[in-house]
Amino acid sequence: MSSLIELGPLQLAVATLLVVAAGTISLVLRLGIERRLAISAVRTVVQLGLLGLILERVFSLRHPVVIIGILVLMTIFAAREAASRTSKSYRGIMIDAWLAMAVSCFAVGGVVTQLVVGVDPWYEPQYVIPLIGMILGNSLTGIALGLDRFLDHLSTRHGEIELRLAFGATRREALAAPLQDAVRTGMVPIINAMAAAGIVSLPGMMTGQILAGAPPLQAVAYQIVVMFMIAAAVAGGAMLVVLLAGRHFMGKDAVLRLDRLRTTK
Amino acid sequence: MLPFLTAGPFSARNGEGRVLFNDVSIELAEGELAVLDGPSGSGKSTLLRQLVGMVPTSGVTRELSGEVHTDMQLPGWRSLVTLVAQDAPMLAGTLGENTRFPFSQRCAGTRVPDETELARLTQATGLAAIPEDRDVGTLSGGERHRLALVRGLLWRPKVIVADEPLSGLDEETAVRCFELLREFAHQPGHGVLCVLHDRQLGARADRTVSLAARVSVEAS
Question: Within the 160-219 window of chain B, which residues sit less than 8 Å (CB to CB) from chain A?
Answer without folding.
Answer: none
